[in-house]
Amino acid sequence: MNGIWYYVITFFIIWTIALVFKDKLTEYGVQVNFPLLMWKTQRLRGFIDRIAKRAPRFWKWYMNVGIVISTGFMILMAVALIYSLKTLMDAPSVSLVVPGVEVPGSPIFIPFLSGLIALATVLIVHEFSHGILARVENISLKSIGLLLFAILPGAFVEPDEEEMNELNRPAKMRIYVAGSMANLTLAVIALILMMLISSFVMPAVFHEDGVQVSRLTEDGNAIKYLSPGMIIKEINNVSLNDSKAYQKVVTTLKPNETVDIKTDKGDYSFKLKTNPQNKSLGYMGIQAKSNNVIAEPFDNQFYTPLLWIFMPLSELLFWIYFLNFAIGTFNLLPMKPLDGGHLLENLLSYVMPESAYRPIVLFLSFFMAIIIVVSLVVGLLGFPA
């Protein structure tokens, strides 16, 4: 079942329940105003208060550093987005990433379950960090909650806007960068843990024995012949003992040539298509991973089944790192309503009046929004010849 249908069915059920029981749900803090569905609560404010009051000096110091780091990423992301115009028609740099869904134009496929868990960490740490820094600066929190805009989920912390407007610029910037800094911090932690597991634990516990087909894409011909779970033994008479050998062979494939693949389930031949990310390479439509087996000293032990948890754990940590880093840095783009736009506005206010920096931020917001929309459209629909 295509992952998109899980979302369609889920959103249909959610909106049906919301519209049918609209009046009843308001008693529980749910606001239904299609296309916006919002649930507000005040139950977590005490938890956020306790974290904020435990080390207010640390949070201010950390976010002062965060202002510098975020400003660097803001500039880097803006330059990267503008530079992406050079390759827009061949390989759009902006694409949707939806767990469990193969998005046209996106070279990235995020597994459904680990992707959803990772995405939840993005939302939780981002919004809670905004709330923590708001309380550190003595800003009241009106509510905390979840929202659904049509089919786009989100979370929010709602600070008192009047109190926010009375803050000095450093305090405002600390609150604005808190979410992305939390995402970047979690990304670093997840990356370190993943590298520890992949560099020390897994080489000791597992060894590679060929490569396994983990997924087949619909834009390649392999899907007509192979199945997920097959072990690829040879490609074009080249033996594959590990993933490095597989990657080396893949770089030799050319468009329109016929590839011969030997698997544990049989031998197959089919014609290659053109790699959408590199037109000089052939494309099978195979996403492969190492076929790992338990090393002999750890095999047939009472704890052997428990060792397999390192495989999904490593994958989950990767997606926590990837999504927190990707979304955290994207949020620092100098465009409103993203946090990067608010950060830029406050930075410019040091050197120019409001009448000068407002038009600059507005122009950048529209300009970057156009690049993003065009990149998404080209990625999804392709560029007409």
How large is the share of residues in beta strands? 15-25%
Shape: globular
Helix content: 40-55%
Largest sheet: 6 strands, antiparallel
Quickly list its features.
385 residues, alpha+beta, Pdz3 Domain, 2 domains, 6-stranded antiparallel beta sheet, 4-stranded antiparallel beta sheet, 12 strands, 19% strand
Write a structural description.
The protein is an alpha+beta fold and 385 residues long. The chain has 2 domains: 35-196 and 320-381, no CATH class; 218-284, PDZ domain (Pdz3 Domain), CATH 2.30.42.10. 51% of the residues lie in helices and 19% in strands. It has 12 helices and 12 strands. It has helices at residues 3-20, 22-25, 45-54, 56-83, 112-136, 161-165, 169-205, 243-250, 304-307, 310-330, 339-348, 354-381; strands at residues 30-33, 36-41, 141-149, 152-159, 206-216, 231-235, 238-239, 258-263, 266-271, 273-275, 278-283, 286-294. Strands 5, 6, 7, 8, 9 and 12 form a 6-stranded antiparallel beta sheet that branches. Strands 1-2-3-4 form a 4-stranded antiparallel beta sheet. Strand 8 (258-263) and strand 9 form a beta hairpin. Helix 4 (56-83) packs across helix 7, helix 5 (112-136) crosses helix 10 (310-330) and helix 7 (169-205) crosses helix 11. The radius of gyration is 24 Å and the shape is globular. The mean pLDDT is 88.
